[in-house]
Amino acid sequence: IIADEAQFFQPEQIDQLRDIVDTYNVPVFCYGLRTDFRTKLFPGSARLLEIADSITELKTVCSCGSKAIVNARLDGEGHVITESYEPMCYKCWKKALEKEKEA
Fold this sequence. Notes:
By secondary structure, the chain is α+β, with helices and mostly antiparallel strands.
């Protein structure tokens, strides 16, 4: 079973997938984000982190070259918060938020 966008699953649904693995010996692969654009865990992701047999992180890079850990919401002018997303490291994300506060 392959589950995409698992961050949007309810914790109970994650538990059901875990039961499928344990009861039927069927492998389940879940893909999704760990945190939202505010760096807060999604409930589905939190439950996966608690009960997954293994976790493999797919790494991406911020425009500064550092490891990206935040999915920043951006408007068309590069301001954090609206419709498009860009991977950023935590440092660049914090800088972008500070820049928004100054504007």
